[in-house]
Specification:
This protein is of the alpha/beta class and 303 residues long. The chain is built from nine helices and six strands, in the order H-E-H-E-E-H-E-H-E-H-E-H-H-H-H. It has helices at 17-26, 48-64, 80-89, 103-120, 135-146, 159-162, 180-189, 220-244, 257-268, and strands spanning 29-34, 67-68, 75-76, 100-101, 124-129, 153-158. Strand 1 (29-34), helix 2 and strand 2 (67-68) form a beta-alpha-beta unit. The longest helix is centred in the C-terminal third of the chain and has 25 residues, at 220-244. The chain is globular. The protein starts with 16 loop residues before the first helix and ends in a 35-residue tail after the last helix. 46% of the residues are buried.
């Protein structure tokens, strides 16, 4: 059996129309990557979440097929439990360099991303977020709500779900925040975005911009192994979704903006109050009233 050459490009925005058509014909799968710019310790570029998700998707598409949509780096942060977490882990910084939006903005954008992919005729979509906290649980919920209305088969996950067995080969998920896992992954994927020399001399009790305490254990080679693990996992999930696609399903129900707005108003918006990112607190105490994180920790009630 002949081995097909790797495509020149898998990034949607960098492909020519004929390349997109050829890639679609070979594998009608789209990766929709998400992330956030936020502090990830002094050793990592602030775009770690988005850079990580996008690069992992690109590796998977280069090896196993598919097209990678432009990364969306405007994500949920700065309110509710995220604000409480930030007060404890980021600290009272003047500028946190967040690309944050509230949940109702992020998830409505995701709905329109799904609409665009469905309209193009993709058979499957993997929505991959590199940003943690409970947003990924709500992303799963959004997909559950939208799936009955589209023919495209979808799966949403945080990248750590695919990072099994994780850093220590212990059978547990490999997620952390700017610790050995995320730093190792970014080091392998985007080495120019990691500078280990910026690590503080001692961990101490200071937030260090939300750096994980085990960041000094980061290892680029282990990051490369984790990338390979995630690519294998995503390839298997992609094959499963493509096999589940049913061309005989009803015609596209999200063809127009009006249809997308109707789905938002009747199905998604009523469910928003139950989304975890719409809760004021998770397990943390609220930020102090004099904290820079206090003004948005109370989530507005969306009816």
């Amino acid at each position: 059996m002949s081995v097909q050459p790797a495509p020149r490009e898998v990034r949607w925005e960098r492909m020519f129309p004929d390349e997109l058509e050829a890639a679609f014909a070979a594998c009608p799968l789209v990766y929709l990557p998400y992330g956030l710019c936020e502090p990830h310790g002094p050793q990592n570029a602030v775009g770690l979440d988005a850079l990580k998700a996008h690069a992992i998707a690109c590796h998977a598409a280069m090896q196993h097929g598919g097209i990678v949509a432009p990364v969306d780096a405007w994500h949920i942060h700065g309110l509710g439990g995220y604000a409480a977490w930030s007060a404890r882990r980021v600290g009272e910084v003047e500028r946190a360099w967040l690309t944050c939006v509230p949940p109702w903005v992020h998830f409505k954008n995701v709905l329109y991303h799904i609409r665009a992919a469905e309209l193009l005729g993709f058979h499957a979509a993997i929505l991959l977020t590199g940003h943690y906290g409970p947003n990924w649980e709500d992303l799963n919920r959004l997909v559950e709500l939208v799936q009955p209305h589209v023919a495209m088969r979808m799966y949403a996950l945080p990248d750590f779900e695919a990072n099994t067995p994780g850093f220590d080969n212990d059978g547990h998920s490999g997620g952390d925040h700017a610790g050995k896992v995320e730093t190792s992954l970014l080091w392998a994927l985007e080495p120019e975005c990691v500078d280990i020399s910026r690590l503080p001399a001692e961990p101490g009790d200071a937030p260090h911009f939300a750096m994980g305490r085990n960041a000094r254990e980061s290892n680029r080679l282990t990051g490369e192994r984790m990338v390979a693990d995630e690519v294998r996992w995503l390839a298997a999930k992609a094959a499963e979704l493509l096999a589940a696609y049913d061309a005989a399903r009803p015609a596209v129900q999200l063809r127009t903006y009006a249809q997308a707005e109707h789905l938002w108003d009747t199905v998604i918006r009523p469910a928003l109050p139950s989304f975890r990112t719409m809760q004021d607190l998770w397990d943390d105490a609220p930020p102090p009233e004099d904290s820079v994180w206090y003004e948005n920790w109370r989530v507005p009630k969306i009816s």
